[in-house]
Amino acid sequence: MAKKVIVIGGGPGGYVAAIRAAQLGAETHLVEKENLGGTCLNVGCIPTKALLHTSELYRMVKHGERIGLKGDSVTLDWPALLNRKQSVVRRLVGGVGGLLKANGVAVHKGVGEVAGVGTVKVHGDKEEVLTADVIIVASGSVPVKLNFPGADLPGVIDSIGALSLPKPPASMVIVGGGVIGIEIAALYAALDCKVTVVELLPEILPGIDSEIAATLKQTLVKEGVVFMNGAKLDPSPRRPADWRPKCWWVPKRRNSSPKQCWSRWAVAPTPTAPVWKRPASSWNAAKSSLTPTTGRMCRASMPSVIATA
């Protein structure tokens, strides 16, 4: 008799696990509360790369004389670019759905809750109870909202919002010089936006090879990006009459006075926390009494549950 597998989460971890389980002969069900493809395909890697591709071409053509190209002035059609981004996302998300269907994976729309050993409740348009021999939790992570005065002001957005602005802003302050922040900086700097990156650590891209990080930083500086390393953010208090986000950055050097920077948009790339640390997430850790592990087989404290995130 075939094993029965339930996968909670339709991102790159979940849908690949579901397809492989089906290929190995299991009756496989996948539970996803939003679009297939997860953060990566919908609001992360894929849309960012689509925008970066066009912005790089735009930058190269603008400075075509450097490589022997001359032509009329090039203009950016931002709405058309956003439409292309969404077209790419829709095509890839549709491809994931096609792969799941072709491999016989049943997709259930809703929030998955591990209700007991081998039992998953699906809270969607209709309530369902699924049973399985193995449950794979691949629900990813959720954004952690930054909590500081002024974080809720108009014009203070997260990294997801930065991918769908109504138009490229004239200036932008990015809080955080990690991978996401630097991608956003590269994107908008190429589109003639005055970008400032505020980073607490001495250098950008912590965890990345230092020579690569230094080379990329040098390239972005040439594009006009201003880096404020070794600085912490001291956000402005709420000022109803002041429509522009304002922040102070404070160098960590002794006897350094705070410096002020203004921007039409302030972007704070959202750090993420594993879903099992947040009860109100795509599966209910409080009710299911699950404890994730980091063992080689990624098994959770409940029998027959595997946590991939």
Key terms for this structure?
five-stranded parallel β-sheet, 26% strand, alpha/beta, 309 residues, FAD/NAD(P)-binding domain, 18 strands, single chain, 29% helix
Summary, kept brief:
The protein is an alpha/beta fold and 309 residues long. 29% of the residues lie in helices and 26% in strands. It has 2 domains: 4-143 and 272-307, FAD/NAD(P)-binding domain (3-Layer(bba) Sandwich), CATH 3.50.50.60; 156-268, 3-Layer(bba) Sandwich (FAD/NAD(P)-binding domain), CATH 3.50.50.60.
Describe it.
By secondary structure, the chain is of the alpha/beta class. The chain has two domains: 4-143 and 272-307, FAD/NAD(P)-binding domain (3-Layer(bba) Sandwich); 156-268, 3-Layer(bba) Sandwich (FAD/NAD(P)-binding domain). It has seven helices and 18 strands. Helix 3 runs antiparallel to helix 4 (78-102). The protein starts with a strand and ends with a strand. The model is unreliable at 273-289 (pLDDT under 50).
Give the arrangement of secondary structure elements.
Blueprint: E1 4-8, H1 12-23, E2 27-32, H2 38-43, H3 45-62, H4 78-102, E3 106-109, E4 111-116, E5 119-123, E6 127-131, E7 134-137, E8 141-143, E9 156-158, E10 171-175, H5 179-190, E11 194-199, H6 210-222, E12 226-229, E13 231-235, E14 246-251, E15 259-262, E16 265-268, E17 272-274, H7 285-288, E18 305-307
Parallel strand pairs: 1-2, 1-7, 2-3, 7-18, 9-16, 10-11, 10-16, 11-12
Antiparallel strand pairs: 4-5, 5-6, 8-17, 13-14, 14-15
Helix pairs in contact: 3-4, 3-5
